[in-house]
Amino acid sequence: MESNELSVRARGGTELMLQALHARLDPNLVRHFQIIPSRVRSLDPDRKRILWLHDKPSHEESSFLEHAENRAAFAGIVCVSHYQAALYQMIPGVPYSEITVLQNAIEPFGAYHPRRSERIRLIYHTTPNRGLEILVPVFEHLATLHHDIELDVFSSFSIYDWTERDAPYRPLFERCRAHPRIRYHGAQPNAIVRDALSECDIFAYPNIEPETSCIAAIEAMSAGCLTVCAAYGGLPETCANFATLYPYTENLQAHAMRFAAVLDDAIATIRLRRAEHERLRAQQVEYFNHFYSWDRRIGEWDAYLRGLL
């Protein structure tokens, strides 16, 4: 991109976050700040600049932060997780004293309603590079063992208006379309994904990317889904001990075997629909609806920005 304005066609987590933040902040406060999401392309000389980091540090986009004189161009540097803040402190060497952590936020889903369907619905609703290549063969295997499981896949780089990057994954998408119990939806508006999450039981996420945070997991857990994911990157922090975590490994075959074993157990647990499981899901929903709500986070942002004035 040639400017700090995110593409109007992109609908990823960063874009949704920026739109939601601007929609909720006091306009009289916003006019004093240029909020730059992750990638610096231009600086407004007439406003205080906030660098709002969403990505992991990279040489191309973050090495300039190694120098104090470059960091001085910003009134504040905001990270979306404590895991991410630690990365920026260690890699480009940003002092903790210059970082503020304001975690991601979503529109809450409301109170938990136990699922009553005899079918067990799994969902994957993020880009294909984050673990779809593990999920599809694992689901194909588990579908031979469990007659009652289904999978909804919402996945495409077109959510970032980047369809050419889908090319290596098209055979995987076709594999989804060919399976009688996988529904491949491509990239869909967030409202459609949220409707599906409200009906699903498990967010099946064999993550192979060390995410700084995970809005997909936050929404899934706010919707009441049991999340099965690797303990990698910012996921343990994001999921706050409510997810079913398993040890990450770089070996894709070993990763698939670990994921399959844990997902198999999660499916069996969901099938029982036990009262204690439902109580845990209700506690999960209550936590995520409160801690990750925009009502809470906008107050933190408002206080942070006013402090800088």
Written description of the protein model:
With 309 residues, the protein is of the alpha/beta class. It folds into two domains: 13-105 and 293-308; 120-291, Glycogen Phosphorylase B (Rossmann fold), CATH 3.40.50.2000. It contains 13 helices and ten strands. The chain has helices at 13-24, 27-30, 59-62, 68-71, 82-90, 132-143, 170-178, 190-197, 215-222, 235-239, 252-272, 275-291, 294-308, and strands at residues 33-37, 48-52, 76-79, 99-101, 120-124, 149-153, 182-184, 202-205, 226-231, 244-247. The strands form two sheets. The chain has a six-stranded parallel β-sheet, sandwiched between helices. The chain has a four-stranded parallel β-sheet with strand order 1-2-3-4. Helix 9 (215-222) packs across helix 12 (275-291). The chain is globular and about 60 Å long. Residues 1-8 have low confidence and may be disordered.
SSE map:
Blueprint: H1 13-24, H2 27-30, E1 33-37, E2 48-52, H3 59-62, H4 68-71, E3 76-79, H5 82-90, E4 99-101, E5 120-124, H6 132-143, E6 149-153, H7 170-178, E7 182-184, H8 190-197, E8 202-205, H9 215-222, E9 226-231, H10 235-239, E10 244-247, H11 252-272, H12 275-291, H13 294-308
Parallel strand pairs: 1-2, 2-3, 3-4, 5-6, 5-8, 6-7, 8-9, 9-10
Helix pairs in contact: 6-11, 9-12
